[in-house]
Amino acid sequence: MIKNEVKTTCSYCGVGCGIIVKKDANNKVFVEGDKDHPVNKGMLCSKGMNLHYVANDVSDRILYPEMRWSRSHPRERVSWDDALDRAASVFKSIIKKHGPDSVGFYVSGQSLTEEYYIANKLTKGFIGTNNIDTNSRLCMSSAVVGYKKTFGEDSVPISYADIELADTFLITGANPAWCHPILFRRLEKHKEENPNVKIIVVDPRKTDTANFADIHLQLLPGTDVVLYNAIARCLYKRGLIDEDFIKNHTDGFQEYKDLIFKTSLKQASKICGVSEKDIQKAADTIGVSKGFISMWAMGLNQSVVGTDKNVSLLNLSLITGQVGKPGCGPFSLTGQPNAMGGREVGGMANLLAVHKDLMNEEHRREVAQFWGVDKINPKPGLTATEMFDALESGKLKAVWIACTNPLVSLPNLNRIEKAMENAKFVVVQDISHKSDTVAFADLVLPAAGWLEKEGTMTNSERRISYLPKEIDAPGEARPDVEIFCDFAKRMGFRGFNFNSSSEIYDEYAAMTKGTNIDVSYLNYDRLKNEGTFQWPVPEHRHEGTPRLFQNKKFYTASGNAKFNLPSSIENNSVLPNEDFPLILTTGRVRDQWHTMTKTGKVSRLKTHYPTPVLEIHPVDAYLYKIKNGDITEITSENGVVRVRASVTENIKKGVVFLPMHWGKQLQSNLNRANNLTNTHVDPVSKEPDFKFTRVSVSKH
Ligand code: SF4
Question: Where does the record place the 4Fe-4S Mo/W bis-MGD-type domain (predicted)?
Answer without folding.
Answer: 3-59
